[in-house]
Each structure stands twice: as C-alpha cells, then as structure tokens.
Amino acid sequence: MTKFFPIVLFPILLSCMLQGCRKYETVKIMTYNVGVFSKSGENSLSMVAGMVRESGADVVSMNELDSCAARTGSVYQLDLFASEMGGWNRLFGAAMPYDGGAYGDGIAARGDMEAIDGWSAVLPQGDGAEPRALVVMEFENCVVASTHLDHVSGAAQIAQVRAITEMLRARYAGGDRPVFLCGDMNAVPGSATMEEFSGYWDVLSPEEMTFPSDSPDRCIDYILAMKGTGRYAVVTSSVLRHFSSGDVSVASDHLPVYAEVTVSR
Which helix (H) or strand (E) holds 132? Predict the structure, then answer.
C-alpha cells in the first residue's frame, strides 16, 4: 500500500531544503536599574537576586552598580550578585571613578550561558551630568549590551545614542546574531532620544511606566534590538511589578523590564 505524507509537511521540508534548518533557542532578558542596591536604605542585593531567579531570566543588564566604592561597603557589587546567583558569568563596565572605587553598569548571565567575549566603553559626556558607559557581552547566539544614558541633558543623550549605535554597528551589523540593548535611557517614548534610536533600533519591551517604582508615572527603561543583526522573535515582554520573593517598590526606584525572545542561527 502506498503511503502519503500529509501535504502540510511539504512546505516545511521545502523551506529546510532551500534555507537550511535553523536552530531556535529561547533567551530570557531582564534589564534593571538596581540603584546600587540601596535605594530603600537597606542592602537589597539578596532581594534582587531572588527576584531575578523567580523571573527565570537568563541574562540581566544592571544599571547603577558600585565597584569597591566606600559608600556601599567597598565591595564589588556585581561579583557579589553573581555569587548569590550560584556562580553566574558577569562583566562590569566603569563609567567613572567614585568614592575610592568605580560606578557603572554590568551584565550577568547564567553559569551555563558562557560569554565568548566582552568589552566596555565610556560614552561621551558632553554637557551631561556625568560620564556614562556601554557594557557588552557576546554569546554564541546573541549579543547583549547594557547602558544608562545621561539624566539631565537631551543633547548628551543623543550623542550617547549615536556613539552606542556606531560602536555596535561597527562590530555586529550584518551578522547572524541579534544584538539586544538594555538599560535606563532616561527618555520617554516619543522623545528626541527615542526617535534617535528608531533609525537603527526596534523597541521590544512594552512602553509601560517603569519609574519611580512605588508609583510609576513614566517609561524610561527599555530592551531594544538592533535592526539587521540576526533573526529573533519576541515571545513575551513585560514590566515586572509583582514577585513573591521581593518588593519592587523598595528593591530599587526602578521597575525591572523583561523580554523573552527566540533567536535562530
């Protein structure tokens, strides 16, 4: 007896033959301005670690981190967070010296999500309040970057966006890995800063209120993806407001933002 395959299989088989079957992987990304883990007056590092575990995030972008600064006990905050998470990979990027140590941004990723490479750069300050940084970790299936734009000058923000875009496009434009940019942009949807991003970036996270955490009234924290840098699809994205493991209204003055994406190579 002749057997027939359901006709629905033929478009899939044909697609695989013409394009090659791709490997699809899920990456869960969080971005969180943690406010040096002390916005509530107490050390919220363990609380934040619990919230990250509860979210299931694979990689976390963090803004406002201290490294060996006296005001936060002269400890390497990102290293302590990575240890609290059971040995996550991490990379800190200093924006400026501060109080005997440094202040900047960082990325931490699951221990089995090994980084291929990592680097950081200081962004132009212009007429802004202080220097800012860009931190980048490269993984096998994607690139994740973290930044924190100036909070007083729109002109400085735009210069920083242009510097970020130029650096990341120089390294990754046209590549087969998607590039995700996360952080506190200090800019609301529709602002000149977010319009500047729109030329080369798509916003993946919802434009919902993220600051201040106890009574949010503006959206300033985002997850974006660079156009033309690999295939991805957003499964879900959200501003995280409720955890059983911690209180977002005291952990920091920002709410964490989350996106789950599938990437293919």
Answer: strand 132-138
**Within a domain: 73:** yes
- Helix, strand and coil content of the chain, in percent to the nearest 5, comes to 25, 35, 40
The SS3 assignment for 76 reads: strand
Token pair of 7, please? Answer: 């006709």
Compute the chain's Rg from CA coordinates. Answer: 20
Is 4 within a domain? no
* 59, 107 contact by CB (below 8 A): yes
The string of DSSP letters for 50-81 reads HHHHHHT-SEEEEEEEEES-GGGTT-BHHHHH
Secondary structure letter of residue 198 according to DSSP: T
pLDDT tens sequence across 129-145? 999 999 999 999 999 99
Kindly state the average pLDDT of the residues 12-18.
37
How many structural domains comprise the chain?
1
What CATH number is given to the structural domain containing 244?
Answer: 3.60.10.10
115 closest CA partner among 192, 62, 58: 58
CA distance 153 to 191: 12
Write out the residue range of the structural domain in which residue 214 sits: 21-264
